[in-house]
Structures are given as structure tokens and as C-alpha cells.
Amino acid sequence: MKTLGCFLVLTILVGCSVCTAQIRSAPPETLTKPTPGNCEDNVFILNAAHVAADATGDDTLIIAIARLGDGERRRELNRRRLHNVRVFLTELQKRKPSTVIIAQGEQVGGYGRVELYVGGRLFQVIAIKTNDDLLVSATCEPDNIRPKSPDSSFYPYLDKKPE
Description:
Layout: H1 2-23, H2 39-56, E1 62-67, H3 75-92, E2 100-104, E3 112-118, E4 121-128
Parallel strand pairs: 1-2
Antiparallel strand pairs: 1-3, 3-4
């Protein structure tokens, strides 16, 4: 019974997110500037995008567009952020790689961001602290308990050498 209740709550939350995203399908420049959340927020948003795409069909595309923000100059940041999105969706959520499209967009004012589009409509914008990676999954744990495993698939730990 607990599992059914949790499933219903998650379904309602995801449904509300999808409705809100459809209403807010204006160009990103006209939206209020997003502020960075935490790692768990990022995981929730990516998971919700996956669930929303699955609800509309197996081959529904999720498009992620990374944009540098104020004070960010290295295009490598966008590549790393998009890598984390792709790995999260294809390896953890088991989406078909052909349903995840990634691209880099023009620089924006404010925080760097990753815009998520589901089925061609803006779903959510994830803001990222200046010069940071998009933290997801195992990177959510505090440094003192995070495993320093060489097999980590996510940045910033993907390029760190084992101790």
C-alpha cells in the first residue's frame, strides 16, 4: 500500500510539472532567470523529464541544450554538463541513446543552464552555479562519504585519478 501511495504522489508531481512546462513554453529569454538548486533537485528534474517522455511514447525525444552563463568562458563546461545529462538518462534511466539529443547554445546572462525539452516543448531549466558541473547521482553525496571510485561515470569525478 505504501508503494502505491508513493507512486501516486510521484505521478501527480510529474503530471503537474508537465502541465506547468506546457504552459511555460515561451522562449528561455522571456522566462524568469532560474537559480541553482542542489544535486537532488537536478536528479528529480532529469527523472521527471524521463517519466514525462515515457508517458508520451517510447521514442519521444529529450533535448538538452547547455548554455554558459556570466563569467563562464570554457566550452568544456557545457560538454561536461551534457555528458552528465546523457549518462544519467541513458545509463541510469535506460533510455535509448537515440532519444536523447544534446547541444550547446549561445551564452546567457545569469547562471549557466541546461534547458530540457520533452517532445519539442520546454520542460524545465536547470541553473548551475558558475563554473560548476551539473551534479547528479553519486555526486550528491557529501565529500566525506562519497566513494572515490575510478569507475564513476559522472563529472567532476570522471576525470579524477583514484587515490
